[in-house]
Amino acid sequence: MRVTEKINEQWEFEKEGTVTSINLPHTWNAEDGQTGPELYYRGVCVYRKQLKMPELAPGQQVYIEFRGVNSSAEVRLNGKELARHDGGYSTFRVNVTDAIGAENMLEVFVDNAPNDKVYPQRADFTFYGGIYRDVYLIVTDASHFDLDYYGGNGFQITPSVDGENAAVIFETYSVGDADRIVVSVAGAGETELELEKRGGKIYGKGSLDLLKVHKWDGVRDPYLYEARATLYRDGRAVDSVADRFGCREFRFDAKEGFFLNGRRYPLHGVSRHQDRLGVGNALTREMHAEDMELILSMGANSIRLAHYQHDQYFYELCDEKGIIAWAEIPYITVHMDGGRENTVQQMRELITQNYNHASIVCWALSNEISLQGVTEDLMENHRILNDLVHEMDHTRVSAMANLFLLETDSPLVTLPDIRGYNLYYGWYVGEVEDNDRFFDDFHAKYPDIAIGLTEYGADSVITLQSPRPEKGDYTESYQAVYHEHMLEMFAARPYLWGTYVWNMFEFAAAGRDEAGDPGKNHKGLVTFDRRQKKDAFYIYKAWWSEEKFVHLCGSRYHDRVEDVTEIKIYSNLDKIALYVDDELFEEQEGQHVFRFNVPISQKHRIRAVSGAYEDSMEIEKVDTPNPSYFMSLDKVKNWFDAPEENGEDRAGFLSINSTMAEIQATEQGAAFLAGITSQMTGKAAGGMGEGVAIPEAMQQIIARQPLKKLLQQGGMELEPEKLQQINAALNQIPVKQE
User: Fold this and answer.
1) Residues 189 and 275 occupy one common structural domain
2) Where are the beta strands (DSSP E) in 96-245?
3) How many domains, in total, are found in the chain?
4) Is the pLDDT of residue 682 over 70?
5) How far apart are CA 472 and CA 697, in angstroms?
6) Which residue has the higher pLDDT, 558 or 720?
7) Both 403 and 313 in a single domain?
8) Mean pLDDT, range 199-225, rounded to an integer
9) Are residues 595 and 672 in the same domain?
10) CATH number of the domain where residue 71 is located
């Protein structure tokens, strides 16, 4: 029988001639991949490990299994190249039987340098280099379940629910010889597979009926069966593999959203990247488990596992906890003409390695791939991937996450089985209400198409606070207001099959330099180190979780200059009592959000109470704004007196508060605007906007925006002096008369 041994200990790591001793998992970008683009190392590093020959019986095979090496790997044993693998997020194996000796040197050359054939190459997250997941040594009999086909385990399980019962089809792929292959399901029986030769391998197929099947039913009852396939040769069991599966049925409805096991089941989702502060992507099992518990504690029931294949352990956690999972490959942002083969390979690996997971309902073809337009080569690549998904798996659907700039009548939108859009109205462009308009218009135009929101969010740095939050200020306060609106919007549109916050956790984005904290995307509801939950986390808990709680917003906004301050509370209880300095101030009844206007004059203790649940904080009245609450000292100067920053606007003339349409309507205004906006190109969102064509629908939204708001979101510094200069110049241009 096979023997599997983890070999994470005692490796040597060489980077630019410097050798250190390390244990796996490991990345060389744990620090420089999180601090901005200047220090971010992308190149080739080498991992080495001495291996002793394992005890081998005649004919036994030896494999090295890598669970994740980013992004390209060349594997050598005793100086001989044995394998290459392109793609940093999937399992691959190397048969080392013919090259292994008594004493061995295993070398892995790992490369995360830019190229034009391996995805991802351009995206708003860090491409950590390293062997960042576990490595195993596997010894098998000459006859064994296939270890060479796209990193799979040679065992495929396909359950089909029919009323109270289920039929489960088992398929195996093995090499060598086999007399019998028997599949047993714990507590449900066993079946012997019919065997046939296919292309030098043995294909086995059989089925088992489960009467009164115990369904996998989401977070409330994620029941899993365990199946084991055993291969017999010459009457003796020589190999065995086990996997778990769940029996469930689901569908996407254009009018009522997602259904699980026949009942409506709205997908309350978050997106997740696999890294964290100071660790990069080299997470331990304990870290993966902590991520899952944080997600569950907020009340989410679905996760978009972006933008690549995640660790097998996390898919297992999704199965165990009843999470509906979206799985995708890193075909992202910009299509590369030379990358088609790599997209096909990564999709084959994703499906082959994850086919048995009950949690997964879709295979996503790409994410925001239309940033620089839709070409015929891009369309053909997607048609190939879409066909491949249906060929490999008829039980799930194909999906895409479309860039919010992509027109809804693009053929790319209608290609996969279900549609998703990534919308950032209310953050990068437009107002939060534009999200409502988008879905209302889409649903009215395409009432028979299932649509979901696959990304949305607003950045916030947890130290930044404001009593007057506004788009672009990066405050915890604005992020909370933004998400309040989004949840209200979802509740009014039951046809949305799912929604996915971008992002559950802050994550590294080496190309970003924003809000005084470079190298990170700050849209997370939880900080990068997982230590602090932002206020926005609790508005989701108020809507989604059954765990009773009370949360006072603004606990980090201690120093307050206003005479009357808003005390805001999130809760899933329906009555809140507010105490100020231990005296009852007011009681309110409501849902989700409770607001109290409280006069303040000194240091105060604030307490929110609902039955046995409460939260407390301290605030203090101060004369001068706390500069740490702002991105720059200049913002402190004009915080409470914003209208005066631009001086007196001239009636009948343009100003910084004029809309883009008003400014562009005049020849002078359009010329002036071209000079201003050219300074903004590529600065927002880590430079992802560079070279993007703006479609007509988006231009109409932009045209409604005041110039000042667009400048705030465009990455330009908004010192009062600069604003005054821009405003003064515009005040010389008369408004066009109709």
Assistant:
1) no
2) 103-111, 130-131, 135-140, 144-145, 155-162, 165-175, 180-185, 189-192, 194-198, 201-210, 225-233, 236-245
3) 5
4) no
5) 22
6) 558
7) yes
8) 97
9) no
10) 2.60.120.260
